[in-house]
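Table S7 (text form). Paired inputs.
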Amino acid sequence: MSESRSEVSAIEGTVVRANSGLYEVQTAAGNFICRLRGNLKKELIRPESDSLRPRVQKARRRRVTDPVAVGDRVILHPEVAVIEEVLPRRNALRRPAPHTGDQHTLLANLDQAVIVFSTIEPRLDLWQLDRFLVAVEAAAVDPLLCINKIDLVPAEKVQEALSVYRRLGYEILFTSAVDGQGVDELRCRLQGKISIFCGPSGVGKSRLLNAIQPGLNLRVGEVSPVSGKGRHTTSQVELLPLENGGWVADTPGLRQLGLWDISPQELPYYFREFEPYLGQCYFADCTHQREPGCAIRAAVAAGAIDERRYRSFCQMQ
């Protein structure tokens, strides 16, 4: 029996932009503006075990703001410009959507997250940095810390505050989009990878990307003199091609990154320094806050775990 037209014409591509139910998909045959097949607006729940035959167990409406994210690999039919299938994701960075709390995926299938904070304007907020790190760790994405605006406050002034992150194995780059410090090194770290730039508003993400590749021409804004917080200049996520290879996503500034679907039992696993002590507490269901015989609290008391990072963990529970 001959193949159907739909089987012959189906092609694979990557979603590089999404806006109001329309998706720009890059393929080997060019870019297409597509809509989503109706059935994909429902979530198909499959068995988690690989030993079970894949089958749909039930269908339900997705608790998501958008069932397809930038970075998704999809199957589409160019004749009708419809996305027929979303391929399995390697990973995804998510957050709760404003107002509804539903799941919002910022980007799928990424290689690294460049977490951008500034030395000042807005000031370096380690408590907020911890939340970004937990979200990235939970998404199984490699983080790269980028401390920007070192033309305003030299890197030496914040080295001590960041020393705990170096001890935990986090890589830290210091940059200035104004005088170019660290820009070449950051450009090299982006080469050949799909990266997301995330961080609070006003830390200079868009300005940094313009310094890395001037032709991007991303809009930039200043920090509000009233609130001390950045003004949003990026309104949606978009994958941008880099001249030296790779892709980068600029994201809307996040003043407070909510943690999507991370239970109190899971949270300790996203603090790297807790790992040697997990499973050693007297109580199996220890919350690591008040229980006697807690290995985490004992490590804090002994100085093996940074006390401020521990308090950051307690605030997130």
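Next pair, protein 2 of 2.
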Amino acid sequence: MNGFNLSDIQDARLGGTQLSAIYLGSSKLWPTAIDYSKQYLTIESLEDNNAIGWKSNNSTTKTIEWSTDKSTWTSVTSSTSGESLTSLNTGDKLYLRGNNNAYGATWSTWSYFTSTKTFNVYGNIKSLVYGDNFDNNNFPSNSTNFWRMFINTHVVDASNLILPSQVRSTMYVLMFGSCTSLIAAPNLPNGSAYQSFNAMFNNCTSLTTGPVIYANPGQQSYANLFDGCTSLNSVTVYATSLGTNGFENWMNNVAPTGTFTKKAEMTLFPEGKNGIPSGWTIIDV
């Protein structure tokens, strides 16, 4: 096996039979696990003729760069009419980078992606903050925000989107609001500074399982997090102590029955839309 990297293998065959994996004894050699934290923020299309755009809701704009080969990069500035990045076919990837600390100037100002077809999103969100150097930097000292970044798009799987735990205040408000195709959510960071996940998955009607919640009392806000997620029936909270603030309406209008998994030590959590839905089964771990 000397002389090449197994991670570069795209397709392995024995004779005419395609292999799903290569093992040495009980050790899996291929395919190797992907470290998404070291990848640019990436959009991968699930359909042909998927037009990806970059738009602002008002005159405050943000400039980013995009590439389909990580070699040639094109700069684009958001606008209220929307700027076309490229059209992707099934399996095509769009790599994204930028040097903006914040993608919104106020609660009523934001730049965001648009799509005409379904896609997955993965990679490190910090490539929008530090360009090529995203793997070597923490978030800036002041607040960073990505609110409404994928709102109303056709994203399906965001489970490999890396939202790093940081010591800086970060906002993900309505990041996937009304993404009705979303079935897999990203892991939520649990940094030591204030993090706002308010309404992050608001009206994601296809989402059935929420991301695991690791909360520090007084540090995170989950208000309206799953509000309108009418198919949501499974939530896991691994914090051992939670206050009642920051969870207002977080489980409003979810599925009437479901499973709420929590630490046995966690006892201070109300019943209903601000805590555990009354029709749900509680499992202690």
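The chain has a mean pLDDT of 88.
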